[in-house]
Amino acid sequence: MYISEITPAKLRGLFGTVPMVMMVLGFLTANGLGLPMLLGTKERWTILLSLQCIPVILMCVSLPFCPDSPRQLFLVKGDKVGAEKALIWLRKTADVREEMAAMQRELDMQEKGKINPQVSLFGIFRDPYLRYIFGLCAAPMFVKQFSGYACVLYYSTSIFRKAGLDHLYSAYASLAMWLVYLTFSLISMSLVDRLGRRVMLLISHSGMMLGMALFTVFMVLSGSYAIDWAKYGGVASIFVWIAFYTTGSSSVAWFLPSEMFPQEARTSAMTWISAFCEVCGLTTSFLFPMVVLALEEYTFLIFVGGIALGTVYIVWKLPETKGMTIDEIQVLLRYRFNGVLSA
After folding, report:
1. 129 vs 155: which has the higher pLDDT
2. What is the 3-state secondary structure (H, E, C) of the chain?
3. pTM of the model
C-alpha cells in the first residue's frame, strides 16, 4: 500500500512487484542455505533460523528515514506542505505540480461528499461501491491462492519425490523452482506497466491452467501407467506453472487493491484482502494432504477449475488501470459501477 502511494502512476506496476521479488529472494536464500551441505543439518539449523533477523533489523533502521505517504499527508492529515515536501524528496525534483493537482481534485471530490469519511473495517461491506471493488480485487487473489500456489511451494519437495525424484534431487528441483520464480518476477517487473494488469493476469492464468493440466497428465502416466519418462514431464510442467504464476498472479493480485480502492477505504480494504488471502491459503494448504489421499493425481484438476472460475470473472468485470492516476481510476470505476461518469 505504501509503495503504491509513493510511486508515480507510470511506474506503479513495476514497483508493486518489488515486495514479491524480495520475498522470492528470501525463499531462494533459505532454500539454498537449507541444503544438507550448508546449513540444513541438525547442528546448524538454528543459524539458518536466526538469519531472518537481518532484514528485519535493516528495515527497522531504515524506515524512520523514509517520508510519509504524500497522499496520506494531503488527503487524510490535510498537510499540503508536508505532502509537497515528501513528493519533492521522492521525485528528486521541485516540479510536483501535476501530482499535487491530482490529489487536490480527489480532495475536492471528498469535500463535495462524493467520497465518504475514513471507512471502518466493516464499512467496506456496507457500501455497495466498495463491495464492488472488493469483488474485483478478491477474484485475482482467489485465483492466486486456489491455483495450487501454497501447495506447490510448501509441498514442492514432496511433489517432486512423488514425481519420481529422490530426496536430494527433489531439494535441488525445489531450489531451481525458486530460481525460475525469481527470473520471471524480474521479467514481470519490466512488463506489467507495458502490457497492463489485466493482460498480465490473463496470460498468467492461461499458462497456469496449462502447466497444472500437464502436470496432472504426466502424474497419471507416471503413476497409473508406470511410464518412466513421464516423471520428467511432471517436473517440467511444474516449472511451466511457476513461470506463468510469477508472470502476473503472484504480484498483480497484491498491488491491485492499493490502486483501486479510494484513499479513505484503502487501509480497511487491504486488511480484508490480506485476511481473504490467508484464509484461502490456509484452506488449500490444510485440505491438500487430505484431498490427495482421495483423488491422488487428479487433485490438481481442482486447481485448474479454480483458475478457470476466477479468470471468467476477471474477463467479465476487471477493467485495465495501466498508467492511470488514482483519481482517474476512481472515475473509471464509478462509471462502470453507476453506468454514468461522475461529474
Report:
1. 129
2. CHHHHHCCHHHHHHHHCHHHHHHHHHHHHHHHHCCCCCCCCCCCHHHHHHCCHHHHHHHHHHHHHCCCCHHHHHHHCCCHHHHHHHHHHHHCCCCCHHHHHHHHHHHHHHHCCCCCCCCCCHHHHCCHHHHHHHHHHHHHHHHHHHCCHHHHHHCHHHHHHHCCCCHHHHHHHHHHHHHHHHHHHHHHHHHHHHHCHHHHHHHHHHHHHHHHHHHHHHHHHHHCCCCCCHHHHHHHHHHHHHHHHHHHHHHHHHHHHHHHCCHHHHHHHHHHHHHHHHHHHHHHHHHHHHHHHHHHHHHHHHHHHHHHHHHHHHHHHCCCCCCCCHHHHHHHHHHHHHCCCCC
3. 0.78
